[in-house]
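Hi R.,

Here's the chain you asked about this morning:
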Amino acid sequence: MPDFHVYSYDVSWNRLGEVPLNGLRFGSLLNGAGTLSGTVPPERGTSLSSSDLLGLTAPGERFLVVDMDGQVVWGGILWSRNRKQAPLEWDIGATEFLSYFDSRIMAADYMLDIDPFTLIEDLVNNAQAVKNGSVGIIVPTGTAGTTILPLYLKMNRMPVSTAISDISGADALAECWIDVAYENWVPVPTLQLGYPRIGRTAAASGIVVDLKTCPAPGYQWPEDASVSGTTIWELGYGRGLAQLNGSASAPLSTGQLLLEKVITRQGVMSEALLSQHAAADLKLYPVPVPTPTVPLITAGPGSQTSLTSMKIGDDCRVVVASDENFPAGLDQTWRIVQMDTSVPDEGNAITTLTLNIPRSFTP
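And here is the predicted structure, written out as tokens:
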């Protein structure tokens, strides 16, 4: 049975000790920040005193890392703690490192053509360059090979995360995630950027999910046509009559409704590029839009795949020979956009994958 440990670090990445947590749950989110939660039990599982725990769990001053058999599977900032009298236990809450930039304000103006990678890199570097402002994120240098025209003024006191979200949101131009891994047994968070996407293909990842083998409560396959689009309009730079736009439409047959969807990419300055995005987004927003969730045993006896073998943004192959929901069977490629792992006090760890249609845009 794999061992999970939650370690506390100060903001200089010195390990302070292990935080004993029951009901451990943690997750990662593409272009966002996943969360961690758990409860320090009354018996605490160790000889830690209340003073020790206060130091290990100081909100806003501690980083938490989840270690599984010597590999980092989650990292983030401890933001919340609730000390309860009855029962005598402490609830702990943390969020991945992108959450730090909710509490940081942009330090420069951005009004000229810029590569989206360069813009995100600059935002993170500037935030970390000031005294007491660094969480140790490594920022590689790279380019997306395209440009956008942003309009961000430091006088508006906009959070850094707002600009990153504008650029790397679900309908934006680049994708990002902060991965955490050991280097000489010190956790190192590293900014991951991709254009038009991050992650491996299904062939490269080798991840195969068989719906027949899902543990209880089993998979869910929700479908929602209210977010679909048979015609996609992409709006780019400018306003009013001068705003750039592009569009793409799917052929409709009798019995199908026209469904129009508008996606704004305010920094894009090319109508040809907007039309490319529109054509790709037609595939992302079919009628209806499915968002399956699939649980897998990722640690313990009967493990279907290893938690450490999957990364946010990876494609995977989803199969089923035949069942009541898919009588003709299923063999499709899907993309992992969210991973949520539950580690019970006893038994197998279960990771629930949230899947989306893989993005097919090719610049």
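One quick note: The mean pLDDT is 91.

Cheers,
M.
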